[in-house]
């Protein structure tokens, strides 16, 4: 497959440690890192949780920062920009076609994130910049248009997630930071003691105590981790387990990125209603 590929898209981080070996064995010089046919999806993304101490004792160490960039809807805007650059490099004669599809997808993403109305008042670039700096919601609450607060113009996923802002959740693996930080949610505990290290009984007891102490009511986990441990912690704490796919096609019917983000928010909102958060 890779030997015949025109373009290879990877995160460009150390999440996919198998990629360099795969590309080398493909013998396709055009898709090697640094060549026109290689796209590092993370280029230009503001990385979170860059480690200050490099030690294997910290578990699955990611030296460039948390690599789970695709769970952040705002990151998707940068990712599709990076892919467009790659496509134009490998097939410049089709640039107009790529740019048209990119523009349509970008508008759909912007409307899904902010709603259809707000980007017509404040530019999408300004909205995205404020969202990256965690100042958007305050800006919308403090400013008005014709006497109406701008926050009333907010739509899309950000409006949908407003009842979740300020809430605390637990996770199995620390892979949701770009999602939670964007929507104003705090990831306050992980069932894994450190990334990639299976939890011991002692650590699970500590997590249970943390969840009880901080009144955490939702445990949010990918569907490929040990759901038995998730369910056990939920039973011991009264928290609501929310198990979701992380990728497109990770669950039947979840066949687009838009459906994926919807299912993350819908299931978390459903759990928050059951547990009396909103």
List keywords for this structure.
alpha/beta; 278 residues; Rossmann fold; 4-stranded parallel β-sheet; globular
Can you put this structure into words, describing what you see?
The chain is an alpha/beta fold. It folds into 3 domains: 2-106, Rossmann fold (3-Layer(aba) Sandwich), CATH 3.40.50.1980; 117-154, no CATH class; 162-274, Rossmann fold. It contains 10 helices and 8 strands. It has helices spanning 19-26, 73-90, 95-114, 124-132, 136-142, 156-160, 177-182, 201-213, 227-237, 257-274; strands at residues 8-10, 38-40, 144-145, 148-149, 168-171, 186-190, 218-222, 240-244. The strands form 3 sheets. Strands 6-5-7-8 form a 4-stranded parallel sheet, with helices on both faces. A two-stranded parallel sheet has the order 1-2. β5, α7 and β6 form a beta-alpha-beta unit. The longest helix is centred in the middle third of the chain and has 20 residues, at 95-114. It starts with 7 loop residues before the first strand and ends with a helix.
Mean pLDDT: 93
Query: How are strands sequenced across the largest beta sheet?
Result: 6-5-7-8
Topology as H/E string? EHEHHHHEEHEHEHEHEH
Supply the CATH superfamily name of the largest domain: Nitrogenase molybdenum iron protein domain
Structure classification? alpha/beta
CATH fold assignment of the largest domain = Rossmann fold
Q: Treating each run of at least 4 consecutive H or I residues as one helix, how many helices?
A: 10
* Overall number of domains: 3
Beta-strand content bin = 5-15%
Low-confidence stretches: none
* Total beta strands: 8
Largest sheet: 4 strands, parallel
């Amino acid at each position: 497959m890779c030997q015949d590929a025109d373009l290879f898209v990877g995160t460009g981080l150390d999440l996919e440690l198998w990629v360099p070996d795969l590309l080398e064995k493909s013998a396709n010089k055009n898709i090697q890192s640094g060549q026109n046919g290689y796209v590092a999806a993370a280029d230009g993304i503001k990385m979170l949780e860059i480690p200050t101490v490099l030690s294997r004792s910290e578990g699955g160490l990611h030296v460039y920062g948390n690599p789970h960039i695709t769970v952040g809807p705002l990151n998707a805007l940068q990712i599709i920009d990076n892919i467009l650059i790659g496509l134009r490099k490998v097939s410049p004669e089709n640039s107009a076609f790529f740019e048209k599809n990119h523009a349509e997808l970008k508008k759909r993403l912007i409307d899904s994130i902010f709603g259809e109305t707000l980007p017509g008042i404040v530019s999408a670039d300004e909205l995205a910049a404020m969202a990256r700096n965690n100042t958007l919601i305050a800006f919308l609450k403090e400013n008005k248009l014709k006497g109406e607060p701008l926050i009333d113009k907010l739509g899309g996923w950000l409006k949908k997630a407003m009842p979740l802002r300020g809430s605390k959740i637990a996770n199995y693996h620390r892979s949701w930071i770009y999602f939670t930080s964007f929507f104003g949610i705090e990831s306050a505990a992980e069932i894994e003691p450190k990334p990639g290290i299976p939890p011991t009984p002692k650590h699970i007891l500590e997590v249970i105590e943390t969840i009880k102490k901080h009144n955490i009511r939702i445990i949010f986990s990918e569907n490929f981790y040990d759901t038995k441990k998730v369910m056990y912690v939920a039973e011991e704490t009264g928290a609501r387990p929310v198990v979701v796919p992380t990728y497109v096609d990770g669950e039947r019917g979840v066949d687009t990125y838009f459906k994926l983000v919807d299912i993350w928010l819908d299931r978390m909102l459903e759990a928050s209603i059951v547990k009396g958060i909103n």
